[in-house]
Design brief:
Chain A is mainly alpha-helical and about 80 residues long. The mean pLDDT of chain A is about 90. Chain A is built from four helices and no strands. In chain B, strands 11, 12, 13, 14, 15, 16, 17, 18 and 19 form a nine-stranded mixed sheet that branches. In chain B, strand 15, helix 21 and strand 16 form a beta-alpha-beta unit. Chain B is elongated, with a radius of gyration of 36 Å. The model of chain B has no long low-confidence stretch (mean pLDDT about 90). The chains are: A mainly alpha (about 80), B alpha/beta (about 600). The interface between A and B is medium-sized, with 20 and 20 residues.
Chain lengths: ~80, ~600
């Protein structure tokens, strides 16, 4: 898939998990900009990413996934885009 | 139970168990009108483990069961602190339900790696829970759901001594047993075995060490769903009563094939595939019946054919007696099901309909939306699963009346059947155990007599409308006035018939001891039981030997029911119209029915 496709998928996923409208998720999104993004929903995010993309994340990946751009970078590597 | 409220059901069917799908379903449910829900609950969760991720799962699983849940997760590991302190967050929240989520390794001795030590004292846990619940009840009228996880912190047998392993398992079992006894004692409490809940996904799939080390969450995403589902299911069982009646189709439901086409020897019902799947489904239905669920049959078939299978097929486990109601005919099933509900005196929303035919299911669903229609799978090997899936008959505690219910309905049905079948009419009448009391008309009952004289239309031979004075005058002139009271199995029917016989001023035979029946009537309450014969026979008994009795039948629009009464009593017609009848006491033709006793 293309980088744009990946970005769009991540946005959709984040919108669903954090219960916010899709257009409020941007490449700058982080726990500072999204109210529902706390340590609990972070775990939901981890589970969702694994399930949605059919991959297994390492504990380090999971800990690092604390902003849109970081999520994008980690997944980009997994799919070697 | 999983509700069939359209919006909730559709959301559930549209969603799978992936995190994104669940999150979307949660969002959709939160937007629904609260009127979609049957219950609203404030649920507080006291837990020894991190329960926060469970919150959204609990919300959705409750919603699927018709419960609009407001969920408050209290700080981890503060069971006593929250329960005992009047000013705690728990008590300020004032929950209607409290979930106690206990991982056994957190409350009994365990080793450093978090595994249970071998064989511990189960009573410690039970006592602790009792104290917590007592304390919670001091400040809240809340139902309690104690949810315990134990087995998954047991080491597998090869790592430690097998006996130690077995005694660990026994201790865990003793905890559950002690808690169910506590629940019986306290009431309004459910005990949930979380290991049983997780077993649905399996030990490996429910374990996600990453989540545990990151956030101290002991279960994977799918493990959390299984747990939330089980807890919600138990809560729903406390809030909503089980469905009362399972309405079953016959063809391709209770047996394979179509009876009308394949014949009794052609249907599939046996101990080998696929007949064994149907047989097993019948066995399951029978178990439900033993638990107090009523069974009903709604089938498009010839009734005799179906009865033949139920009575004679050697692999048919269900018999006609097992059904509290049956509608085997060719009219539409929605009408039949509505009648079944009325016959059993239960609401439509207490009924479950199980039919292999999607067209029938669709029809019943649109005509009777309150009836819960099960999604029956194509393969009969899944019939029992499909019925279990919707959790329709969940009961936390069976009562005496549950266990006896089917017998009561069976007795009632037998009574109704006997009433309808003419060849069993005699035994029906016998079964009524009727007792008759014949008395004279006097001041004590004259008002009731006059009332009946003036309002009885059907079983009234002459329809003469006398006043109280008329009756008194007749009695004064030597008339014989008799009333009859009937008591039977259903109670005292009161004064239900009367006869006034006046001395005849003329008689065709010139006989001085001649009487004419001026008034003879019966309350419609007791028509068809030969009570009238008892009364007339009793009156004639009192007449002198050799007496002649004349009876008139004056036809009206409403009294055709008694046009043959005198004939049935052995009277002979004196004219061609059937209006004048004669009986001589010496003929000895009229006898009191044997099944009516004298009171």
């Amino acid at each position: 898939m293309s980088e744009d496709d990946l970005k769009r998928e991540i946005k959709q996923l984040m919108a669903a998990i954090f219960e916010v409208p899709e257009d409020s998720v941007s490449e700058d999104s982080s726990p500072d900009t999204i109210e529902n993004w706390d340590s609990v929903s972070q775990l939901n995010l981890v589970a969702a990413v694994e399930s949605q993309f059919g991959i297994e994340l390492t504990a380090d990946d999971a800990v690092d996934m604390i902003s849109f751009s970081l999520i994008f970078e980690i997944l980009k590597e997994k799919f070697t885009l | 139970m999983l509700v069939n409220t359209p919006e909730l059901r559709q959301t559930r069917l549209d969603s799978d168990e992936t995190p994104v799908s669940r999150a979307k379903a949660t969002r959709a449910v939160k937007l629904l009108d609260k009127a979609c829900f049957d219950f609203s609950e404030k649920i507080a969760v006291l837990s020894t483990i991190t329960a926060d991720p469970l919150s959204s799962h609990l919300y959705l699983e409750c919603a699927y069961r018709g419960i609009n849940a407001d969920i408050k997760i209290l700080p981890i590991g503060q069971l006593e602190q929250q329960a005992f302190d009047e000013e705690s967050d728990l008590n300020k929240y004032s929950p209607s339900t409290v979930i106690l989520l206990i991982r056994l390794a957190d409350v009994v001795p365990s080793d450093n790696s978090g595994m249970l030590s071998s064989g511990f004292d189960a009573q410690i846990v039970v006592d602790r829970v009792r104290a917590l619940v007592t304390s919670i009840h001091e400040h809240n009228r809340a139902r309690i759901v104690v949810s315990v996880s134990g087995h998954f912190q047991l080491r597998s047998g090869i790592l430690i001594d097998q006996r130690a392993s077995a005694s660990q398992r026994r201790s865990v079992t003793e905890v559950f047993f002690g808690l169910t006894e506590l629940a019986a004692d306290i009431g309004d409490m459910a005990v949930v075995d979380l290991d049983d809940a997780i077993s649905r996904v399996g030990r490996d799939a429910s374990n996600d060490s990453k989540l545990y080390f990151l956030g101290r969450v002991p279960w994977s995403h799918s493990g959390q769903i299984a747990i939330a589902s089980s807890i919600s299911r138990n809560l729903a069982a406390m809030l909503a009563p089980a469905k009362k009646c399972l309405v079953l189709d016959a063809d391709n439901t209770l047996w394979g094939g179509v009876l009308g086409e394949d014949g009794i020897d052609g249907i599939q019902l046996s101990d080998s595939y696929p007949g064994n799947a149907y047989k097993s489904f019948q066995a399951y239905a029978l178990e439900l019946k033993r638990k107090g669920i009523l069974l009903a049959l709604a089938s498009k078939n010839n009734a005799e054919d179906v009865i033949e299978v139920l009575n004679t097929h050697s692999d048919c486990l269900l018999s006609p007696d097992d059904f509290a109601a049956m509608r085997v005919n060719w009219i539409d099933k929605a009408t039949n099901i509505a009648e079944i509900a009325k016959e059993l005196n239960i609401g439509l929303s207490s009924l479950v309909f199980y039919d292999d035919n999607p067209a029938e299911r669709q029809w019943v669903n649109t005509q009777l939306p309150q009836v819960h229609v099960v999604d029956v799978p194509q393969n009969p090997v899944k019939y029992v699963e499909a019925l279990e899936h919707d959790e329709l008959f969940d009961t936390l505690v069976l009562s005496e009346s549950d266990l006896n219910r089917s017998e009561l309905y069976k007795a009632e049905r037998k009574r109704k059947e006997a009433a309808g079948s003419s060849k069993d009419m005699e035994s029906f009448l016998v079964s009524l155990s009727m007792k008759a009391r014949v008395e004279s008309i006097e001041s004590r009952n004259i008002k009731r007599v006059v009332q009946l004289v003036n309002k009885t239309n059907q079983f009234n031979l002459t329809s003469r409308r006398h006043t109280e004075n008329d009756v008194k005058n007749m009695l004064g002139d030597g008339a014989i006035g008799r009333t009859i009271r009937i008591e039977d199995n259903f109670g005292d029917n009161g004064l239900v018939g009367l006869c006034i016989a006046v001395p005849a001023t003329q008689s065709p035979d010139g006989n001085s001891s001649a009487w004419e029946i001026d008034t003879f009537l019966l309350s419609c309450r007791v028509i068809g039981r030969n009570v009238e014969k008892y009364l007339l026979a009793d009156v004639i008994e009192d007449l002198p030997d050799g007496a002649e009795v004349l009876g008139r039948f004056i036809s009206t629009e409403r009294n055709r029911v008694c046009s043959d009464f005198y004939k049935d009593c052995g009277f002979k017609p004196l004219d061609d119209d059937g209006t004048l009848w004669q009986y001589l006491k010496d003929w000895n033709e009229l006898h009191k029915p044997t099944y009516i006793e004298r009171d």
